[in-house]
Fold this protein.
Amino acid sequence: MLHLEDVKELIGEAGEPTLTLYVNIDPALSENQAGNPAWRIWLKNTLKQLDARVKPKQRPMWEHLHQQAEAYFEHFQPDSKSLALFITPDTQIDYPLPVAVENESAFGKPLVTPLLWAIDEYEPYLIVMVDHEKARFLVTYLGSVGYQETATLELDTSDWAHKTSQNTSGAVDKMAQSNARDDFEKRVEHFTEQFYRDIAHRAVKLAAEQKARRIILAGDEQAAHAVHDCLPETMTSSVVAVLPIPMRAHLKEILEHAAPAALAFEREEEIALVNQIVDMAKAGGRAALGRKAVTAALNQHRVELLVASWPPADGDKTADLALQAFASGGQIELVHGEAADHLNDEGGLAAQLYYAL
């Protein structure tokens, strides 16, 4: 799955004109299982429609990009749910997406808004399924799994049978057996604690590798809480929830349990962010509200975080503002539902600033 840095890199590589295509190629859709799949029909029609709107002076460049698009898809075989394709005179950038996007196209400026939405809405989550003997790591995009890994607790019990099965008698022998059993239980406890520490360490490393800012701990609740306690303090705030999901659960079941918790967390975070920025702006702090104030801040290169409601009232304008924010090192956050409603009441656009005037 791509990340915001990929979009920034794309912007640096793709200028104008760019042919942008977002294609829903999901092989699981019935309409995409025909001999001539629906996505190919849409592609043919949309290229024809774009062709009809090309201005005479753009014709030579359009023909070049059009040919590249047809060559790209001539023998194309889908292996993801969607595809984002950007074709310029000098570059061809494609992003297979593990999430569904609407079919869209553009010729001119690179169309990045759907890509921003996909990144924002399907932020990668690390799900750690754990019990007292094994662990399973899943990186999910709230609908599909992009990475899996397992770990198993290994106990050294090579001398347990010798210590506990000898033919002994008398109080001394019973005491020896009791001591041996206690030693073994302590050994098991030690290995289990080390196992939890190893799982926590692996979770931290994997979250960094996969750029997953959120973690869900699941499986046996006691084991999951034990792993939580082993996480470094800086990572505990990344834990969204601890869920009792059976270790034997299939991927679909795991996602069905985890998705509501993840989505609820995202929406709560968005509401808190909008409330914070609105309050800050009204108090004269490092924030701007409304398109006019935000545009002025962008022109002054003061925007640290651009916040827009989704879906935007003007997608093209929002994309242009996002490009401006990226150019000065800023980020973007798209908010939905209650947070979007609140933001729309304040002009539909807000920004957290590097500094206040």
